[in-house]
Amino acid sequence: MRRMEELIQALQEMSMGNRERQLELSEAHLEEVKTNLAKINSDIALQNQKITEAAENQKAAMLYLDKYKFAEKRAKERLEEDLQSLEMIGIRLNTIHRNIDEITRKIMELGPLPNSASIAKYGKLSTKQILNEIEKIHNQLKEYSDVNQKALDQYSTMTDEEKKLRERKLELDRGYEKIKELMTVLEQHKYNAIEFTYKQVSKYFSEVFQKLVPSGRGELVMQTSHDEEENDRAVAESAICDSFVGVGIRVSFGNSESMMQEMKQLSGGQKSVVALALIFAIQKCDLAPFYIFDEIDAALDAEHRRAVAGVIHELSSTVQFITTTFRPELIEHAHKHYGVTVRNKVSYIECVTRKRALEFVEDAAEDSEN
Length: 370
What we know:
With 370 residues, this protein is mainly α. Helix content is 68%, strand content 12%. A three-stranded antiparallel sheet has the order 1-2-3, covered by helices on one side. A hairpin with an 8-residue loop joins strand 2 and strand 3 (261-262).
């Protein structure tokens, strides 16, 4: 309606030609508006129909909801009633159990129950006759007043205990066998580890000793509790680690054909060479971050000192060696040199050159000779 008023006012302001053109446009627009209005009215009617249907569905759903709410309320009421009944049944059940326990206790006090034949025999007697029979039985029982009336119960109890103990013994026996199997496996692993480590150290000991003493040879010997006549193969096949009592060392500082010697037959310098060979062999098997040697070459001659210095220099690529010495052989292969001097009764440590270190060692050797 507002649009029509606007159009009428606009028509009044237009000229006749413009009014005719505007009238045509307005009529076309009016037809379009009428068409849209009819369509909208149709859609409104359709939506009103859908709303009516939705309202009816909602009403039906509310009826169902009320029905289920009522059913839920009834179910809760029945559940509460069932809980109360269950509680009452539990109370009655506890009372029955107490009565059963009391009756069982009284039956146990009476001793063993009679068999079915005795029940059939005395079941037809009157109460007075039963009491007379009981009186007779009591008089007869007085003759056996010292007899343990609970012996049968005790026998049953002890039989049950014996059965449990036998089952427990079988279980313990099975556990014992499993433990023995585990101990055997662990013993074998232990033996294999000892044998593997021994073979590695023995191999490296022979190699290092050959480097320290080119004309000699050395070997490690596993000492066992077996007789000396048993050969090494019999010892190796034994899985009992307790048979190992130690490791012996046999070396030869002469040619390979000379007689092998044990540690107690060696001099002080030879013992030092053997000890160093063993340390280097262990170091090859299990590396340590560094080693500190304090005048290890003091008892060695020049040839062995050069050999020790060469081995230390060779191994220094994988581990660090810190040594103290008054001999020139180790100094020639060292990477760093430190000198210790005493001034006014105070020790000082300073880094020095190789030349200065050699001069210090030579001066110390001359002082010792003088």
